[in-house]
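During the reporting period, we have paired protein sequences with backbone structure tokens. One record among many follows, to show the layout:
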Amino acid sequence: MKKKYLILFIATGSLLLLSFQVFKSGSFLLQSSGIVIENYVEPDYGLGAGHIDSLLPFPEFKDGDRTPFDLWRYGGKDKSSFSNAELPMEWNAWLAFNQERKPALMHDIDAYMHSRYNFSQEAFPGVFMSGGRKKIMKGPVSRLPKGINTYEELANLSPEEIKYRDLFPFKPLAHPLASTAHMVFPDAWNKAHPEHVRMDLDHDYPEAYLPEFPAPMFLTTHKELGDVTNGREITFSNYFEIFNGLLTPEQLEGLKELLRPSPTGWFNQTTHRVTVEPSTGVACFSCHVNGHTNGAFELAPDSRPQLSRLRVGTPSMRGNYNMMQFASKRSIRSMDHFAEVEEYFDGDPAMMQQIGPRAIQKVVANRMGDFNAILDFPPAPKLDAMNQLIPEKATEQELLGEKLFNGKAKCITCHSGPAFVDDYLHDLQVERFYIGRPEGPIKTFSLRGIKDSPPYLHDDRLPTLDDTVEFFNLVLGLKLTKVEKEALTAYLLCL
């Protein structure tokens, strides 16, 4: 039974009346006044009875300690927001510890990923990414829970039943070593850039389910050239030869800075690193290769404790000229601002000072933003000037998908306009389907050119577009048929 308390106290000569309700037994401390209220425990804020009680406190850890793969089960506060550049052991011991453990850790990571996904490597026939070299994987490959035979059967259950029976196949995907965390590069990148091979772990996704490398680059200022890279990775060594005569001097300067490596929290010249040899660090284009993405992932720098930080895949920079918000949760409002604060030190200026600041001045960030502002989307030959399918070029299935996109599937609610994005953050309240920590509002990402950017959702939990359609069909309660879901995927491949 709820109890209601009225408390009077005097502060700075004024009378303040507090009124609130008590839900469970416990106590509450009003810190500003020192008043302790007995028989009070925090309410569940609409998350459901017992929800808070079922979350586990984050475990204590040191850098390098293995962390649970199911970090969504944990919640709470850390002892401190700050970190430092001291390793938990001497360098030689750190090196040996990580190298010796890596095979067993990768074995467990691989087993976990295959317990969640059936990486069949089945591709759509005759469908390729924009560079024309890499096939697009078909899905869904997310494994259904035991006792559920089809996604249609799962979608007929209520969120409460799915949660109670622990049937949700789309739980968050954690960084597999969240204590150390930082950037994890795919095999294709590491093969070309062995200085970024980590001593402690490798990427957890098969190469077939990641973006093509290197991706083509398209410029708003030179559409007549198509892919201005001609299939090459843009590097510090070749950027001037490729772009001199195409860009303004200011844009050339901005591109140079996007290619210039800087020290980061774990890729640098000190012993606080995850590479065998010291390195010059990481450049913007180390993850955003050719202004796109290579599928590298990190932890979002916007929260503490460390283990509460959400895994984030690298988003494409294509089409940023038509977007008003950047970063997954913090709503950074300009490209130059994002370039200035890019979190190479995980949101910890003290760590930056210990290892060596990036020293990106505002004028330089502006030039980086200036180049970023001419990165175009890839061609979409089936779309007209208003981004609608051209009936003569589209199949019946694709036209049905467009109709669903703008109607029953509700995609247009968040994915509108020339970039297919509304520039808002949305909270899908996915915790309705499983017992776990709410993730809160996440930025809507553009769907233009989406076939080039697997895996999907902010934390890479959806390997294919088919998985993505199944996720939203379930989370939004759309009740799409199998035929409708396939049509929606066919339409997304046109964007």
About this structure: Residues 1-34 have pLDDT under 50 and may be disordered. The radius of gyration is 24 Å. Residues 469 and 490 are 11 Å apart (CA to CA).
